[in-house]
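Milestone M4 deliverable, item 7.
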Amino acid sequence: MQQVELELKEDYNFYCPVTGQQVISEDDFIPSKAMVFNYVSLQGGFFAYANDWIKKVIIELGMDIADEGWMSYEGFRKTMTEIFNRFETENYVCFSITTKGITCGPMSSTTYICIDMGYVYEE
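Output delivered:
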């Protein structure tokens, strides 16, 4: 797996590099068929999306992912390290997108969007 780190403004658009589908917009999140997961480090950490394969592997590793997708950031990092060490993930690219801003003080969050670049797009 390769990781691409980006720092973007708070309201950004993200398009899947494989399908061309808009995944993130100011008002919406729609997973692409090539997406493996989307993990958000905000509010304790949660999976906004996890495909069936990643959910199955997380359970097989004895890790816990709540129905709502909650998983601590430490649990996320540990799980991802295990997955990427045990399985063939050379076609995966994880976009680490950090946004910073000011609310009632400085704030930042990071979203991890993992895309299977080997996904064969079916129209």
